[in-house]
Amino acid sequence: MATTLVPDLLPLARRLVELCGVQPGETVIVFCDDGTVPAWAAAFHAAATDRGCDATVYRCAARQGLIVDFPPRAIEALLQADIVFDLSTSVWAYTDTHGRLTGPDQSVRVAYVGGNAKSIETIRLIPPDPELAVRIRRARDLVDGVETFRITSSLGTDLILRRGDREQFPVLMQGIPVTEPGQFGDLFGGWVAMALPEAGVDGVVQYVGAYDAIGGPYHRVVDEPIALHIEGGRITRIGGDHEEARALAQWFRSWRDPNSYRFSHFNVGLDHRARHYRFPDTNLHAAHGGMILAFGSNYSPGIFGRGSIVRARSHVDLTLMGASLAIDGRQILVDGEFTPDSGLRGPHVQGGGAA
Amino acid sequence: MIDATTLVQAALARYRARQVTERDHVVLLASTGNYGPLVEAYHRGAVLAGADPLLIVYRDRPRFSGLPPAVVRAAADADVLVDLNLSAWVYTDSHAHVVRAMRERGARWVWTAGFEEDLENFLRTPPGDPLVAARFRQVKRLIDGATRIRITSQLGTDLTIARGNPEERASHPPADWPDAGVVGFAPPEEEVNGAIAFVGALRIQGPRLYKRHITTPIRMTVTRGRLTNIQATHPDARFLRDWFASFNDPLAYQFAHTNLGFDHRVTLEPLDNYAVHVHYGGVLLAFGMNYSPFFGTARVRARNHVDMLLIGASYEIDGRSILEAGRFTEESGLLNLPREGSA
After folding, report:
1. Residues 6 or more apart from A109 whose CB is under 8 A from it?
2. Is the confidence at residue B120, as pLDDT, over 70?
3. How many Cα neighbours within 13 Å face the side chain of B326?
4. Which chain B residues touch A54 with a CB distance below 8 Å?
């Protein structure tokens, strides 16, 4: 069943396979589903084969819906790999099977790439970048040891997030090649993320930015603030007398799940190539200076740590733009731009030009 | 061009014949050398049968070379295995491991066709044919109860094969696989003797696939289970002699197994793997490796395997005539129906 290789996909796949340190003889599994672009899977298979691996492609039926498991025995089969390139198109993060594959006791490296046309375009536009990797690690070091984050904005956001136990809530670096046993990572973009103790998240967010709600509103750009009132890690009220606010509130309600309102994780986007207003379709996890406040499921003990215990039927990443972030009183982000002394500014700012 | 729906329906029928349900962990094994539309048909068919299948596609590889350990473990865990490229790993340790593991758990196989050459007979042979199933039970009973089999032909074949202990030398397929259209077994290594005047279908399974119809007899002698002479009287005979010799291995000449086919629906024309094994009234004589739990204690490990489907032969079991000149006899109880287009 030879699949036609799209020529420019192969060099990209080769680069990603190489960056992940795939060694000859390693067991490489390219995991995909029926929604994966066949040529993309073929490119990874060929790239791993070229590295001297007897690579295989494992394919399941695509899942319908949000946070849906793959067959447990199929995922058990993936555990035999040294590295899995996840090219699936299904939304299976925060499931038991994803938790099993990426579990803290597993040695398999899991590189999430995605398999639909948008995923391919994303990794093509914002592949791993060595300069960015330096800032990702710097950001990890900055946020890992703090006690309190404070997010503010000129629109009236004032949210406190307490860091909690670092062992329970480790910092995840994304956009870093997956080279260490047991490591999980998205290969594209660059950001740091962490779950946090719910009880330590309090305040109000005047939310503007953009979000993709898988299985719901998609590509939503929010310019008029939506007020998110958060107490003890739960959204208690969604305010705003406009259509975007109503759409988001209805989306939350539609799950009929109190856990949908629970705080899930906090991200800081670092990728200078992912400019929200320049590329409206850019990946919202990576957006430079954006902060994600996510709600709903976060169960992923091998990724967000043993403190990630929220099980919900939904998950949404709300990328907050134009806000400010202080860590233990030190301002590192002001009005959506990293401060000079944060060390997190991308080259588009460091190199001068328009403010 | 056969439309995808037809292929999916044909695959689905095979899942239904094996009672595949949503409770089954279905694993499909395919190589990059398989015919894509058939792989997709089997994958889709499994979904339509209610299963949530795992399709594993590995890099195409030399025949009989075995599969990667991770794939072997995944296959061994299947409730239902759909093996679309048996030739990649049959007669290897990896295949033997999976067969044993599946048998221990009562797992089952779905009969497959994975290559373009298989298409015609794949569509001709839906499961559930009552004649094929009845013949399967009868042939299985006759062969497992046999002591000695004699194969003759008007062209000069006269070969005697000891059945051996059926508990040790299991016949294949097993009794719960009645749609197979064939029963075969590997006899005791040294208990095959006589002459073969081979005409029919030659399918060299490996190391490299080669297939052709043989119409001028290739005359061979088998002594104590091994080919001891091939008369190089014409190009096909010389080719076969030289092919055997190329392995420089006495085990290359070892008699591997014999089959009796009885599926009246197949056409031999494509010389596909299924037809060569199940052709109605065909007697398969195979040489080379036979190490497989499918054949019980058979243990020949060579580098080659050739299937020679002898057509127009006669077949006796302990003196009882089962087949005469390629036609099942009345006394065989094998429903010797006239074949389509025959006089």
Report:
1. A20, A82, A83, A84, A178, A179, A180, A181, A182, A183, A184
2. yes
3. 16
4. 58-59, 68
For β-strands B80-83 and B26-31, DSSP reports them as: parallel
Question: CA dihedral defined by A105, A111, A114, A118, rounded to 10 degrees?
Answer: 140
Tokens for B229, please give them.
């002479």
What's the distance, Cα to Cα, between the start and end of chain A in Å? 53
| pLDDT tens digit sequence for A243-301 | 999 999 999 999 999 999 999 999 999 999 987 665 555 678 899 999 999 999 999 99
Residues 6+ apart with CB under 8 A from A35: A62, A88, A89, A90, A115, A116
What is the pLDDT at residue B338? 46
Compute how many other C-beta atoms are within 10 angstroms of the C-beta atom of residue B316.
18
- Total-model pTM: 0.93
Residue of chain A nearest B58, judged by CA positions: A56
Tokens of B31: 């190589």
Q: State the average pLDDT over residues B67-82.
A: 97
Determine the number of helices (DSSP H) and then strands (DSSP E) in chain A. Answer: 8, 18
State the amino acid at position B147 in one-letter form.
T
Tell me the per-residue pLDDT of A8-43, one tens digit each, with 9 for 90 and over.
899 999 999 999 999 999 999 999 999 999 999 999
**CA dist A166 → A94, A162, A306 (Å):** 20, 11, 10
Contact A73 B47 (CB under 8 A): no
Q: Answer for the pair A63, A90: CB distance below 8 angstroms, yes or no.
A: yes
**Closest partner residue to A74 among B34, B54, B68, by Cβ?**
B54
User: Which candidate, A59, A185, A69, A187, places its Cα nearest to that of A120?
Assistant: A187
| Amino acid letter, A88 | S
Phi, psi angle pair for A320, to nearest 5°: -90, 125
Separation CA B163–CA B152 (nearest Å)? 16
Return the percentage of chain B with pLDDT > 90, whole number: 92
Which two structure tokens, joined as six digits, stand for B46? 């499994």
In the numeric block, the tokens 């994966």 are attached to A36
Q: How far apart are CA A290 and CA A310, in angstroms?
A: 23
Query: CB A56 to CB B54 under 8 A?
Result: no
| Binary contact (B74, A3; C-beta < 8 A) | no
Residue labelled with tokens 């899991």:
A110
pLDDT of residue B177: 85
pLDDT number for residue B340: 46
Coil, helix or strand at residue A88: coil
Given a contact cutoff of 8 angstroms between Cβ atoms, the answer to whether A106 and A302 are in contact is yes
Q: Is the CB of A2 less than 8 angstroms away from the CB of B32?
A: yes
Nearest to A54 among B36, B40, B59 (CB): B59
Rounded Cα distance, B20 and B82, in Å: 11
One-letter-per-residue 3-state SS of chain B: CCCHHHHHHHHHHHHHHCCCCCCCCEEEEEECCCCHHHHHHHHHHHHHCCCCCEEEEECCCCCCCCCCHHHHHHHHCCCEEEECCHHHCCCCHHHHHHHHHHHHHCCEECCCCCCHHHHHHHHHCCCCCHHHHHHHHHHHHHHHCCCEEEEECCCCCEEEEECCCCCCCCCECCCCCCCCCEEEECCCCCCEEEEEEEEEEEEEEECCCEEEEEEEEEEEEEECCEEEEECCCCHHHHHHHHHHHCCCCHHHHEEEEEEEECECCCCCCCCCHHHHHHECCCEEEEEECCCCHHHCCCCCCCCCEEEEEECCCEEEECCEEEEECCEECCCCCCCCCCCCCCC
